[in-house]
Amino acid sequence: MTTAPSRFQIGETDFLLDGQPHRIISGAMHYARVHPDQWRDRIRTAKLMGLNAIETYVMWNFHEPVRGQWDATGPRDLGRFLDIIADEGLHAIVRPGPYVCAEWHNGGLPTWLTSDPQMTLRSSDPRYLETVTTFLHRVNEIVVPRQIDTGGSVILVQIENEYGAYGSDKAYLAELIRLTRDAGITVPLTQVDQPIPHMLENGAYEGLHKTGSFGSRIAERLATLREHQPTGPLMCMEFWCGWFDHWGEKHHTTVYADAARDLDELLAAGASVNIYMVHGGTNFALTAGANDSGRYLPMVTSYDYDSPITESGDVTDKFRAFREVIARHAPVPDGPLPTPVDAPVFEVALGSVGDPLVYEDRGEFPTPPTMDELGADVVLVEYTAELPADRPGVLEVGEVRDRAWVHVDGRPVGILQRTTNDHALTIPAGAALRLLVEETGRVNYDTKIGEPKGLIGGVHVDGAEIAGPWRVRTIDVPSLVHKVMDAAAEPPAHGRAAGPAGLKAAFDLDAPADLFIDTAGWGKGFVWINGFFLGRYWRRGPQRTLFVPAPVTRAGANDIVVVELEAMTDATARFLARPDLGHEVE
User: Fold this and answer.
1) To which H or E segment does residue 381 belong?
2) pTM of the model
3) 490 noted as active-site residue
């Protein structure tokens, strides 16, 4: 049986929609980073900028954090997201990886997958391909019936992601293509890499249309891309119009006029574009990733990205400038733009419930096990052992991944943190050593994807390894909200709280509303609103507020829960009118 050609094709010089030249003007928006009840609002706002498509990654670990427990409902309902895009008259581009990068935890790969030491990631290793096959089958069950050829929105599907920067296993790419086509994907397949010759060559395969990722030097990058993609349309699959933030760095912004000028040059050259990001959203819960190019740097909770549409859905000067540029090259819808609305401003004192940490005893080990050896998505572990001698000494750890609070006989003596390459400190005399270790974000790029977390390389005092046994207990961070909510609270002494501490408060709203929680007087920890896990806060900054989506609030009584791991100098929940993502740097 002959398969009918797709309504959307790649021609000699252009994308073709029903045989006619078509330019894609798309924007990236990840459904995993937006509350599902706000998907339609964000898509409609993006359409007002002049976009005709929305692009999204599919984060494998978002759908299958535990092997075999696939979830495509609620905030994970990719099908509904694609249907809304179609309802709004836009096309969709789907990038299912299986690796996505995206400043997302572990680059989207589940920790139960990457903890297998016998597996070669992102390769034709049969062990890896076996799991990838199942993942792609599940994704394609959602995408296939939503292609443009069956009345849906999907016009392009990407194979892998920036693969030429990582490897060149052609057998791997061939198998991903085969799995995708055999599943019934009929629309064109693409690949993306930075327009650097060796990357474009490594990631290339027959049947994949090459696209580029860049945000400046437009003519030069398009020329390089054309050298490696001699025919068909040129496309910048990631037009970087902003940037992400790490904890401890400045908040990044770009000059919107410069970004608009680059976008104009790109469109004037006849290229198609996917603006990365048109709306960034939020790394809710524990989904933020990290980078390590010689120094480990975890991502903040906000993924605002200095996008044209802010984390809370407001339009910006960049939005208006981009809209003016797009209007020179394509139709832009009429209609008023949404007006920013200040969030409710109020404050409420937090009550303390004491130490909120609930431990699961994992037994004794001769040496400290990694978090990966203890299970999928373990992020907080307590390691305890007897000290070899009751005298002061120098404690050394091969490597801490990523932050360890050190105690001797129950007294805090210091912190070891990966971001500053700490691996040693002086400890006082004592009998019992305790290290509480937090994983603060898994690397999402390059060869350190899937690296083990916890205590790595042994623990020594004055050069002698602690022989053990090590008693190990894990803490299920997402479940801590229930412990705090169920406990009785009292006012914290002097309005301050020494961690670990659980804190909570109730507050009333006249109606559901977006909120911005001020974290400036807090140390390091986690926040929930009405049981919804907002994510991490950290005094290190630059982010000083956490965004609360209106759909997680309600008219009447609401609850806030905070788990503070260090020290809170102001045990108050303050809600601000506008976000504060930190000092801006262009």
Assistant:
1) strand 380-386
2) 0.97
3) no
